[in-house]
Amino acid sequence: MTTRDGVKLSGTIIVLLIVGVLIFLGLRNREKPVPYEPPRPRTPITERKVRTPRKPKVVVSQDTTSTNAAAEETISMRQLRHERAVMFLPEGDPIPGFDTKGLVEDTMAAFRSNAPTEKKLELMNQIAMIGDKMVMPAVLEALEDKDEEVRTLAVEAMKAIDDPAVVEGVEKALKDPDPDLREEALECIATLTPEASLNDIIMQALNDPNEDVRENALDMLTMLVDDCMMPSLDYALKQGDADTQETSLTLLEQLHEEGSHNALQPIIEQGLLSQYNEVRQMAVSILQEQTGQNLTTYEQWAKWYEENRK
Fold it and tell me: For 56, left (φ over 0), alpha (ψ -120 to 50), or beta?
């Protein structure tokens, strides 16, 4: 073999080696095939949860960084009002170092002079963060303003006040033309101690033309259930629809179990005479369970109650 032939053979071997290395590297780096996975079945539309859109609330601005805005989205308004109420001192200026009285006077002056709406909103945003009955004079002025956003801020201010002083404001708000505002106003009494003066508010709301307002009034009555709220329970049994009457019967049963001697009377006089058959049956069932008497008619129960009332 000549030298030239040896060189050609060596070159051929080198080329083959290079090609082999390239092929090996290509095979090694090639991605492994991904196994086929069938798509997950989609949840039928009829089984998905549908959220009912709510009317957006007025955002109460804050001068300092706070997590209250986020908290309002995750905890109940009732709990939030309680937390706000215990933050402040029971006597004197609710916020030490802040001129609350001056703010209230400035706000009332703004309403009486018919200041621009922007100015009223600015002042009411501050009022809404106080959480004390001191601001109620300004709130009452705001509830009469023609601007709905201003009136809504007045309701937000009352929600932060855990005091019977809000009763007058709630009564005024329940006459507002906006049903959403009337519904929200009822939330202001959720943390109050049950007292007879709240009956007028509940009965007014139970007679509201808007269904949401009536339902919220029943929710508030559930929170305030007490002997002193008997007029509202009696009214609900007279005027409410079947669901309202059944809820009222349940609350009256609860009162009787807690020792109330007055709870059976409306069950007999209103529940047994309801226009709804299911309500009458429920009333009989409650009476039999609570008294151990196997009576069925209104006449029988009325006679028994007269003979056994304390």
Answer: beta
pLDDT tops 60 at residue 211: yes
Give the integer Cα–Cα distance in Å for 125 and 116.
15
**Nearest in space to 180 (alpha carbons), one of 149, 144, 207:** 149
Task: Tell me if 73 sits within 8 A of 137, measured CB to CB.
Answer: no
Which residue in this structure is represented by tokens 């049903």? Answer: 179
How far are the Cα atoms of 76, 111, 165 from residue 137, in angstroms, in the given order?
27, 11, 10
Q: What are the residue boundaries of the structural domains of the chain, listed by start? A: 75-188
What does the block give as tokens for 231?
């007029």
Tell me which residue has tokens 């009325």: 302
Residue 93: the pLDDT is 67
CB neighbours of residue 68 within 10 Å: 12
Whole-angstrom distance, CA of residue 45 vs CA of residue 60: 36
pLDDT digits (tens, 9 = 90+) for 76-112: 443 444 444 434 334 556 777 678 899 999 999 999 9
Cβ atoms of 180 and 55 within 8 Å: the answer is: yes
By the 8 A CB rule, do 4 and 12 touch?
A: no
pTM above 0.90, yes or no: no
The H-assigned helical ranges of the chain are 3-29, 68-74, 77-87, 100-112, 117-127, 136-142, 148-159, 167-173, 179-185, 198-206, 211-223, 230-239, 242-257, 264-266, 277-291, 298-308
How far is it between the farthest Cα atoms of the chain? 138
The SS3 assignment for 93 reads coil
- For 263, the token pair is 């709870």
- Which residues have C-beta within 8 Å of that of residue 81, sequence separation ≥ 6? 159, 160, 161, 162, 190, 191
Summarised one tens digit per residue, pLDDT across range 286-298 is: 999 999 999 999 9
